[in-house]
Amino acid sequence: MLPYSAYLRVYEPVTAYPEPLRSIWTAYAESGRRPRWARTLAAEHGEAIRRLASAPPVVAPLTESPHAYVRRAAGALYVCPWETRLRSWLAAADFLRSLPPGLAEAFVPPPDAERVTAELERWRSGGRSLEPHIATSTWNVPLEWFVPFDPAERCLLLGGQDDQTGTPPSYDPGEPRGPAGTWVAGAAGGQGDAGGPGGPTMAAPLRTLIYVTTLGEARRRLDRAVPVVQAGPPGGPAAGRLEALTRRLSAFHPSSLVELDYGGLVHLLDDEWLRADESVREVTVALAAAERGERELTVAMYQRLGTRWRAVRALESAN
To answer: Is the entire prediction scored with pTM above 0.85?
Structure first.
């Protein structure tokens, strides 16, 4: 079972990577051996389980993962590296800071904690980015993650559980839109993730709810939202978190794609819930209402969002 987590991913154009990474990722995208899109999240989760199940558990891998999520859009190749080692360092550092020293030792042996701390510090002192391409949120989608997207960028697919050959829905800013503004997977003949030579050209993914936009659009929407949130009623996305998200996205190539993936949450929530979920639309309506000074509508949208996602978070402690 996949973890009940959502993901915010940044796919940079392969041309943005310096050599030899550019050639490595290009070859990887064409490889017939890499995990295909429908299996990539499960493969990433499986790697983490094997590390934690080892004796002793491995807090962070000794080498960086060679894997990535791959997208193709408008004839261009985009890559989102897993960066398992960097993400493990950052997660371990956050976890250790959240606990008293004595309690932290019960979860992470001191030698492992010291190794992780030293490795992260060497990475930082080398001037390399501490912003991984993937952000994770468990049991929840943070409200600020909805702001970079438009309702028309929503793609909901409720495929069969036995479909293991799915490819990611293609994304092209100009491709046709489906009912209620939802863009249609492959409607413009996009390549999606064809899986290299001999791979499928288009097949329905297992089960997914995603939004995809350009980084430029995401930044524009965030920049517009910050002063609106600061001046508007409480209960919605926090201005500080929106600013932090803007800073995070600014670390990547301006021609990147940004993807919100409900990830394992789609296996926690039923079809009816997923069809009815219009969180991006509600955030958009709330911010537009706040800009116009319509406080009651803004508050109503925030309350609807809060009610929906509190119910999801409550499932974490349910039997």
So the answer is: no
The predicted structure's pLDDT at residue 134: 95
Kind and range of the H or E run holding 69: strand 68-73
Alpha-carbon distance 155 to 153, whole Å? Answer: 7
DSSP codes, 218-277: HHHHHHHHHHHHHHS-SSS--HHHHHHHHHHHTTS-TT-EEEEE-GGGGGTS-HHHHHH-
Q: What is the pLDDT of residue 38?
A: 62
Q: How far is CA 1 from CA 80, 263, 267, in A?
A: 23, 11, 8
- Residue 25's CB is within 10 A of a number of other CB atoms, namely 21
pLDDT tier at 50, thresholds 50, 70, 90:
low
Compute φ and ψ for 193, nearest 5 degrees.
Answer: -125, 90
Amino acid letter, residue 288: A
Of the two residues 7 and 46, the one the predictor is more confident about is: 7
Contact 56, 110 (CB under 8 A): no
**Spatial distance between the Cα atoms of 38 and 48, rounded to a whole number of angstroms:** 18
Q: Which two tokens stand for residue 141?
A: 């989608």
- What pLDDT score does 37 carry? 65
